Amino acid sequence: MIDGGPWWTYLARRALYRASSIWGGAGFAIVPHHAGKVHPALLRACEIYDPDYVLAYRLTVADLEHFSPGWFQIRGEDGKLLEGEERQQMLDQALEQPIAVADDLTARDEIAAVCSQYQSGDPTEWHDFLEFLEEDDTSNFTPITDIPDLWTGSVLACPAEWGGLLGTAVASHAGVSAPPTRDRDEPEVSDNDRTELSSWLLGADWATPPHSVVWHPAAATGVDTRTTPTAHDRSLAHLVPLTSGPQHRRTGLLVIGDSADDFALARLWRLNFGDGYWLPSVLGTDQPTMLWTIGSAVDRLQRRLARRSGHLAITSSSLPAQDLEDVRNRMTSEGA
Predict the structure, then answer these.
(1) How many angstroms separate the CA atoms of 165 and 280, rounded?
(2) How far is 53 from 129, CA to CA, in rounded Å?
(3) Can you spell out the DSSP letters for 75-118?
C-alpha cells in the first residue's frame, strides 16, 4: 500500500526496492490509495491476487519533510515551536524515524477485508499481525542474500537517480537494486534509449535494453543486456512459476495513462493473468506520431495472443474513451 498522491512514483520505486531485496519479491503488488480509499477495480484485482500479507509503506520523517517542507514541527520545554538551529538539530535526529499515517492503515484494512487468505474458519476472525514492511525485516520475509547460489553479478534495474513515470515503469518491469532518490524528475534519456526502452517494457522478444538500466554491484564490467537478468529475476532464484486454468482465450491488457491507479492496474493484471503492460505518456503515447517500436511490439503481442484465441484490450483509469480511441488509432498507424 502506498499513498497515491503527488509523490506516488517515489513511493512505488521505494516499495519495489524493498520487494527486490526479498525472496519472491518480484511478485509483490503495489497498490495506491487516495485519502484511504482504493479504486474499486484495484480492490477486485487484489481479491483475485489473494495476498498473504497486506502491508503499508511506512513513510519516514525525512520523506514527509522532503515532500512537505516545514512538516516537521516540535515544541520545546516552554511549549513553543522550535525554530532555526534548534529545530534542525531535532530534525536531524528524527530523519529515519518511521511514521504511521492513518490513511495508509485505512486503505490497508479495506484491502485486507476483501482478501480471503486473512479469514479463518470463522469469517469474523482475522489472522492479522503485520501492518508494515520494515526495511530489514527478516522474521517474516527471507532476504535474497540468504538464498544459495544467488546471482551476484550485474542486473537490469531502475537506476537510483531515475524518478518520475519512466523510472517507475522500469522499476515495475525490472526491479530496483539501489535505494531510490527522492527526486521526482523524469530522467533525461537519449532518443535511442527511449526507443529501446519502449519495446523492452512491452516485452518484445527482440528488445535490447539500453546500458543505462544496468546496475553493477561492484566495478563496472561489459555485459550483454539481452541476456542480463533483471533484479526481479534475481529475487525469483529457485522459484518456478505455475500456471493453472486454460491458456487459450487469454486477454492481454494495455493500460494507458499517468496515474498511480493506471500503474497499479497494469501490474496487478500481469501478476494475476500475465500480459499486462503500462504505457505512460513519457513513452510518447500522447504524441501525434508514436514510436515505431510501440506499434511493432503491440502488433506482435496481438498476434501471439490471437494464436490462442485471445485478444488485446486497452483501458485506462484516468483517460476518457476518446483518448483511448486516439491512442489505438496511432498504434495502428505505427504497425499494430
Answers:
(1) 7
(2) 9
(3) B-TTSPBP-HHHHHHHHHHHTT-EE--HHHHHHHHHHHHH-GGG
Question: What are the tens digits of pLDDT across the range 120-167?
Answer: 555 555 555 667 766 666 678 899 989 998 888 899 999 999 999 999
When comparing pLDDT for 58 and 34, which is higher? 34
Nearest to 137 by CA among 25, 219, 241: 25
Cell 529545530 locates to 87
Which secondary-structure segment (H or E) carries 200? helix 191-201
Residue 171 C-alpha cell reads as 522499476
Q: What is the pTM of this model?
A: 0.90
Give the C-alpha separation, 184 to 203, whole Å. 25
Q: Do 202 and 298 touch, CB atoms closer than 8 A?
A: yes
Up-side HSE of residue 102: CA atoms within 13 Å toward CB?
A: 1
